[in-house]
Amino acid sequence: MIIVMKPNVIEQDIKNVINLVEDHGLKTHLSTGDQITIIGVVGDKSKLSKCNIELMGGVEKIVPVTESYKLANKKFNMNSSIIKVRDVEIGGNKFVIMAGPCAIENEKQIIETAHAIKKSGASILRGGAYKPRTSPYSFQGLEEEGLKYMAKAREETGLPIVCEVTSLKSVETAYKYVDMFQIGARNMQNFYLLKEIGKTNTPVLLKRGLSATIDEWLNAAEYIMSEGNKNVVLCERGIRTFETATRNTLDISAIPIIKHKSHLPIIVDPCHATGKRAYVNPLSKASVAVGADGIMVEVHPNPAVALSDGPQSLPPDEFELLCNELKPFSNLVGKTL
Ligand code: PEP
Ligand code: MN
User: Is the keyword Transferase in the record (predicted)?
Assistant: First the structure.
């Protein structure tokens, strides 16, 4: 439930309500807007059954929150969250572009890509060191060696880095290198993994599961946030449907729905959504139009020889074109690139 305080409520009234709720063993989350202040309550509400909170000083009303996710819920936080990855803000006025290869293949490949994407306007470098591949015989990633190359690319370009983690052990290793953890579609409901990264302060890019509903996705975010890590960014990357013309189906409606239900930023990955390079550009534009906070694009110096996801990766010149073409679109929606 949320406790809505009266306009012009005094500090002491807010404190009294928070103390009462916490003294009963529940947690509170304070959100202060221009006009109103709300106190979100997480925990067993029945413990408050004997308290007449409605009658307390400064309280306007009590509103139940029926959704099972609370901290990720817009009702708990009226202001859109801005998540900082080093000096890059996601969810603010900038349309953030994350780019890089599907997999880190060698030092030269990642360094070359990092310089190219930075020149074109990307502000975060992506690269997979732990690759959750469909076949066990496909390239599985360079693991820690790859993370070292990513850290070197950051040193050279200043770009923050985001890498996927797939196990508790990989979290332990990647924690020392990365600026943002990525939870891939296949692990969106790996609750042990979610809880583990929830105990860190490292920002998290949480991809939507292959067949996950929006409610399940927001509950996955709640798993991370309920452990203390509130720095979650969502990523729509396409869902499984009957359609075979694309690898997945980009659920473009998920972006306005998330904006309606949650305060968390959301970005779009048009590469995994389609599996085809040709559709990355138009769907990136669509993402800007529906209010996404950014995109994640796979870029490879030579996609024809990429060890994974070559067909959906852009070569640097196409990526540059994409960034240039996105500028007027983002200006139109009041965002800078
Ligand atoms: C990736 O980003 O390389 C990846 C494996 O994505 P997803 O988890 O969305 O399939
Ligand atoms: Mn990939």
Answer: yes
Sequence-ordered list of residues with C-beta below 8 angstroms from that of 326, at least 6 positions apart, any chain: 95, 97, 284, 285, 288, 337
Distance from residue 174's CA to the centre of ligand 1 (Å): 17
What residue spans in the chain does CATH classification 3.20.20.70 cover?
A: 83-332
According to the CATH classification, is domain 2-63 in 3.30.70.1140? yes
Q: Which pLDDT tens digit goes with each residue over 296-323?
A: 999 999 999 999 999 999 999 999 999 9
Q: Which stretch of DSSP H or E encloses residue 222?
A: helix 214-226
Closest residue to atom 3 of ligand 1, CA basis = 102
**Each residue's pLDDT tens digit, 180-209:** 999 999 999 999 999 999 999 999 999 999
Domain with CATH 3.30.70.1140 in the chain: 2-63
Q: Whose CA is nearest to atom 10 of ligand 1?
A: 185
Mark the residues whose beta carbon lies below 5 A from ion ligand 2.
102, 309
Give the integer Cα–Cα distance in Å for 180 and 185: 16
